[in-house]
What does this fold into?
Amino acid sequence: AQSVSQHNHHVILSEAASLELGCNYSYGGTVNLFWYVQYPGQHLQLLLKYFSGDPLVKGIKGFEAEFIKSKFSFNLRKPSVQWSDTAEYFCAVMPPNDYKLSFGAGTTVTVRA
Amino acid sequence: DAMVIQNPRYQVTQFGKPVTLSCSQTLNHNVMYWYQQKSSQAPKLLFHYYDKDFNNEADTPDNFQSRRPNTSFCFLDIRSPGLGDAAMYLCATSSPEASGRRETQYFGPGTRLLVL
It folds into this structure.
């Protein structure tokens, strides 16, 4: 079945550490890719998105993601996390010729002060 | 400035008692979605409206229905809530035609449903 996989269920790190969250998808063809973030008690917010062009995408709050087509991956990175980055992070894929999103299971990130 | 508004934020209902959740949007988007999100899980699409056309996901239980009386409003009706329906319900909107496949969904804050 076509799907979106997030490698880590829960990541715990200290402030100033670097963060990388993996996301792989199994759809062929041209896809649109997204990372959403859900801070505790808040709604899903768009962190960044990739449609075409430069495979390195910069988003809000210092996050970036790299689309590697050959690996069907769209990994999220942040060089130095802050306590306020504690949240749940969802990778989402819009398959070819579709407008609906398919979400990964999410990764809970806990940043310790 | 709120773009996708959901009311109420918290809803408590009794087992088997019908409940309606509401969503409104100020974006004038033609597509509105309802998702169910259980704790520590990904949002699961229940159905969506593309304009007036209702599109149900294959695995959405019949217990869940939806209405969209106009572009701005969309309702989620749970006819006979069970304990397993306790979850966060998210509304989202998008405008596929206007974006030309550069599509983003905008989410509301969600309604947390508790079934007693």
